[in-house]
Amino acid sequence: MSDYQLTRNTFGQLVLTTTAGAVYEDVVPVRAFALSAPDEGIALVDRHGRELWWLTRLAECAPPVRLLIEEALAERDFMPEILAIRKVSTYATPSRWQVETDRGSTTLTLKSEDDIRRLKFGSHSNAQPNGLLIADSHGLQFLIRDRTKLDRTSQHFLSRFL
User: Fold this and answer.
1) Which residues form the DUF1854 domain (predicted)?
2) What Rg, from alpha-carbon coordinates, does the chain have?
3) Which residues pair with 57 in a beta bridge?
């Protein structure tokens, strides 16, 4: 990223400055593969979603720039990971789920079984789609990295919706 400088302005927004002198405020990093390759394929886009800079690997950035990008990504990509499902109100949708996440206990509302998406982690052709992405009624995304590693009760609740 030697052709560009990345800083924060007084409002906390990222500012991208090119060696040609172009200045772009309110720049946002966006991961191309947020779950399967979170540190590869990151675009810096302007407030209209136009790509300004493409970064193949986050590790290629200087440490201060990498820290700015990592902080901005953490703010943007809030996605709690479900560690256990404690209770489900009903097996019909909509249903309320009481879950334990890596960020504490919470309740989510599943509007439809279609709000559960299967994910395959890893690039191996034999990788199983054991990951799940669950969208609650407010649009918040919850991640289950590997449903086979959940406790039996959680797996039982999930099996009723898959």
Assistant:
1) 24-161
2) 19
3) 40
Strand duo 141-144 + 131-135: pairing: antiparallel
What's the chain's length in residues? 162
DSSP symbol at 58: G
CB 116 within 8 A of CB 162: yes
d(CA 79, CA 77) in angstroms, rounded, equals: 6
Strand partners for 88: 97
For residue 72, report the phi and psi dihedrals to the nearest 5 degrees. Answer: -65, -40
pLDDT digits (tens), the chain, 162 positions: 467 889 999 988 999 998 888 999 999 999 988 777 888 999 999 988 899 999 999 999 989 999 999 988 887 777 899 999 999 999 999 999 999 999 999 999 999 999 999 887 655 555 567 899 999 998 788 999 999 999 999 999 999 998
Alpha-helical (H) ranges within the chain are 63-76, 152-159
